[in-house]
Predict the structure of Histidinol-phosphate aminotransferase.
Amino acid sequence: MTGITPQPGILDIELYVSGQSSIAGREDALKLSSNENPFGPSPKAVEALRRSAHELHRYPSTDHGALRAAIGEVHGLDPDRIVCGVGSDEIIHFLCQGYAGPGDEVVYTEHGFSMYRISALAAGATPVVAPERERAVDVDALLAACTARTKLVFIANPANPTGTMIGGDALARLADGVPEGAILVLDGAYAEFADGYDGGAALAEGRENVVMLRTFSKLYGLGGMRVGWGYGPRAIVDVLTRIRGPFNLSGPALAAAEAAVRDRAFVAKCLAENARMRAWLAEALAARGVPSDPSSANFVLARFADAKEAEACDAWLKEAGIIVRRVGGYGLPHCLRITVGDESACRRVAHAIGQFREARG
Ligand SMILES: *Cc1c(COP(=O)(O)O)cnc(C)c1O
């Protein structure tokens, strides 16, 4: 007995389960489990990364000025209201650390992203789960779950793992309705894939209580570099900036992200391909008796009759060398989340699921 104990809540954290990344004994495994860009990062980002190798002995920028300026230019945002983190996961962490502690509540939804709970518990706060309606965020249920103790309300829009999203009116109603003293966080990890959606930028621009989160891990194909950012009211960004480590982002990560966000031609190509193959995949699955909700992201949530069928299909796909994401941990045991790959990947997974369905009659 050492008498050494962690802070309350820490041992309630279940370790994050990431998408499986390999199948033993298979070199040709197709990974469709982590919503990665099938085209990888922009070649310009890779080139910037290569160049940054000459500066590895230098400490990186502490203010992320060049990256914030690039993001500001591309998105038409004020760079002084941007904070960059080691993935948007780190910004989620900063928000909880900065604004929620013992006795405070952090609200998110039934099928919400698991980092909200992890970061809330790490801060000593109490996670509160609001129900969804048919796998979509329900604004009324979210607002009903709020109390005077609510400090943060997290939703991803489009959401992961459902792929569904709520519209501008619903978002505004949510921002209007959260209690005084609470921050609404709009996690836009998949915002770019939703045609015409600004990720919540206008709301974050115009309100004192809204923060938008974005990432380089999905559309930009830089999950391995760990870069994300937040945009919000100056007062909140100031708090997050005080909390973050002065050198939280490495020089190579900053260089790669800046080049990536400036390469709009590459982005346009990736978005067009995603939209085309997302529609194709959803239709191909439906034709094989596997429905999904309309997805606004870079994955499709395939729905099966029950958890048993989803499990059997997952096993079948593994046999075929295809890795998808089981989402029982998100309260969706009868579903499999399938990242929209390139055309050959989509054809391969649709074909395998068709064979699975035929084999079961
Ligand atoms: C992937 C993802 C993130 C971002 O993760 P980082 O790699 O840490 O930027 C954030 N929110 C959701 C809902 C995600 O799916």
The CA atoms of residues 70 and 259 lie 9 Å apart. The chain has a mean pLDDT of 97. The longest helix spans residues 264-287.
